[in-house]
Every structure is written in C-alpha cells, then in structure tokens.
Design goal:
The protein is mainly alpha-helical and about 150 residues long. It has one domain: Up-down Bundle (Dehydroquinate synthase-like, alpha domain), CATH 1.20.1090.10. About 60% of the residues lie in helices and about 5% in strands. The chain has 5 helices and 2 strands. The protein has helices at about 35-55, 60-80, 85-105, 110-115, 120-145, and strands at about 1-5, 10. The longest helix is centred in the middle third of the chain and has 23 residues, at about 60-80. The termini are far apart.
Length: about 150
C-alpha cells in the first residue's frame, strides 16, 4: 500500500514479483503494541475474515480459514487489548490474522475494503461501515451458510 498524504489517496501495489516468499509471524513482536493499534489491526483482520467468509468466491478452504480466524479473533481481541502482554491472546490474534489473510488471498476482499480503500482512516472507518455492508452481503451468504 502506498499512501499519498498530500493528495489524500492510497494505492495498492500488487504482483507476484513483489510477493514475499516467507512471512515471519511472531506474536512476541507485538507485545509492545499500543492498545489502540491492537484494536485497529485486530478489527481489520476480523473484517478480512468476515469478508472472505461471505464472499461469492468463497470455497471450502477459504471458509475453513475464515471461520477459524473469526473464532480466534473474537475470542482474543479483548484480551489482547486489555493486556498487551498476554502472549496467548497475542498468539491467537496472530494465527487468526494469518488465517484471515490466507482466506481473503483466495477470494478477495469485499465492499468494506472497497469503500474504504482511498480513505486514510481505513481501520477506523471499516468498523463503522462493516455492519451496513455486511448486512447486504449476508443475504447472498445465506445461500451457502444456512446457519444465518
């Protein structure tokens, strides 16, 4: 992501030539993260997982990753926010975030990220927009996931 603060725009740069071969996900590196950043990045990961789960392009593999990510994040985000040194909560958040990324990498992101793509305050805005846009998407998701 490249952010142009002068013109107030963000642009995504994609391509296999710049994709990482390996990602090191170490929850110990997040122990000093401020509570606000923990909440913002946690909500962003949760939105990634939910959007992947209700995507029209979802498949059994993306669903499994997204579903498990949602469970891990929902069960850990408050704990990680309340106590930044809670290694178990940070570990579950890291795993949830990684699973969410695997899910959306296979099916793409939804309307929440599309709407907020050019906004500099994406993580804050996503939390407010998610309920409205997900409600629209949920109608289509009911066809695949009768538990709704």
């Amino acid at each position: 992501m490249i952010t142009d603060t002068k013109n107030n725009i963000k642009r995504l740069v994609v391509g296999w030539s710049i994709a990482p071969v390996v990602a090191i996900t170490d929850p110990l590196l997040t122990l000093s993260l401020p509570a606000r950043l923990t909440a913002e990045t946690g909500m962003d990961a949760l939105v990634h997982a939910i959007e992947a789960y209700i995507s029209k392009s979802a498949n059994p593999i993306s669903d499994a990753n997204a579903y498990h990510a949602i469970k891990l994040i929902l069960n850990s985000i408050r704990k990680a926010y309340a106590n930044g040194e809670n290694v178990e909560a940070r570990t579950n958040m890291m795993i949830g975030s990684t699973l969410a990324a695997r899910a959306f990498a296979n099916v793409g992101l939804g309307m929440v990220h599309l709407i907020t793509q050019d906004l500099l305050i994406q993580k804050v805005i996503s939390s407010f927009i998610i309920s409205y846009t997900l409600a629209i998407s949920m109608n289509e998701a009911k066809l695949r996931h009768p538990i709704y």
